[in-house]
């Protein structure tokens, strides 16, 4: 077990019929609020009216920033900062998914920064303070509702960067599984892959003494596998939506990080790809991860992949390489069952873009990856393997 810090100050209010508690949660900090949300989904499914009603009932003053894009843009962050400054707003309420929450986090830090918000993403400037922020989560995926990081895209530069600060933990997050009933199949599936991807980054580690952490990881992965297809077939299944919602938060609230090491290769590569091509985060991960797994399977990793295959996918047998490969194939088949793309060609990305991807991924490093250190040549190989794949047809 490695040494670790664990800090998780976000208050979770989980379940249905809890929204009446929203005004008192906000009023503990302020009554001048910037309400941040995405496109039309919260207006269609009634969440917008429910939230607005609570704010109005308790005379909480609010202004709105809507239309936050999936893969949120720094231009939207700038807009949010202006609204806060113009109306003297000092609390941010995010109602949506990871994109909305991340945009809200960036605004909350940028309002108190005397410069361009993009500096906080490039880390040209540090985040030394932030306005308090709360969330009403509407999709299970990123874990942003319970962590201190945010991911913002600069579409002019085609760059997507993650950043964070201890000041950015949401003060509270409302997790009502019913709010995810309306999430379409595609985004439900992308969210499930994202949750699994977060777990993999702590699970695929050479630290083999963090038994408790890796068992928690396996439980989260099995939850995604068990409830994933149920949520796709039965979108109104509360049990499935509830388990996925809590899995989303647990996968990236720090619990899965305790006592183990972190390998952010798959996320690092996906962020470069979605920064250039604006694809859905979870879909990008579904393309990359199985090919990364196949590529890095060797003598140094086979024991971990064998453990994964046996404990997560119930694979049996005697030859550890055969077992490991079957676990990877089952991962691929599961993503396919979720109707996620498995190749770059399915999302119209060709090999002509690989040089730009590699260049951006290796901007400040000669190798990437920790569980398996990868060179530029390795990443080219992974990208080419992921161009087209016949093993799941
Ligand atoms: O724009 P709206 O209308 O809200 O529609 C959204 C969007 O089209 C829709 N949606 C959300 N809740 C819904 C719903 N549709 C119907 N009913 C509902 N209840 O779903 C679509 C995707 O939403 P988005 O917020 O983009 O999804 P997600 O939560 O997956 O967030 C993705 C973003 O988070 C970043 C990703 O890179 C990406 O930019 N990440 C943030 C992380 C973090 N802060 O810790 C970690 C992750 O690894 C990730 O990188
Ligand atoms: Zn992710």
Describe the structure.
Helix 10 (265-277) crosses helix 11, helix 11 runs antiparallel to helix 13 and helix 11 (281-296) crosses helix 15 (376-385). The strands form two sheets. A six-stranded parallel sheet has the order 1-8-5-4-2-3, with helices on both faces. It has 393 residues and is an alpha/beta fold. A hairpin with a 4-residue loop joins strand 6 (149-154) and strand 7 (159-164). It starts with 10 loop residues before the first strand and ends in an 8-residue tail after the last helix. It contains 15 helices and eight strands. The chain is globular and about 65 Å long. The chain binds 5,6-dihydroxy-NADP (NZQ) and zinc ion. Residues 38-41, 45, 70-71, 96-100, 102, 138-139, 141-144, 147, 149-151, 179-180, 182-183, 187, 191, 194, 252, 267, 281 line the site of 5,6-dihydroxy-NADP (NZQ).
Q: What is the topology?
A:
Elements: E1 11-14, H1 22-27, E2 32-37, H2 41-44, H3 47-57, E3 61-65, H4 74-87, E4 91-96, H5 98-110, H6 118-122, E5 133-137, E6 149-154, E7 159-164, E8 172-175, H7 185-203, H8 211-233, H9 238-251, H10 265-277, H11 281-296, H12 302-313, H13 320-337, H14 354-361, H15 376-385
Parallel strand pairs: 1-8, 2-3, 2-4, 4-5, 5-8
Antiparallel strand pairs: 6-7
Helix pairs in contact: 4-5, 7-8, 7-9, 7-11, 8-9, 8-12, 10-11, 11-13, 11-15, 12-13
Bound molecules: 5,6-dihydroxy-NADP and zinc ion (ZN).
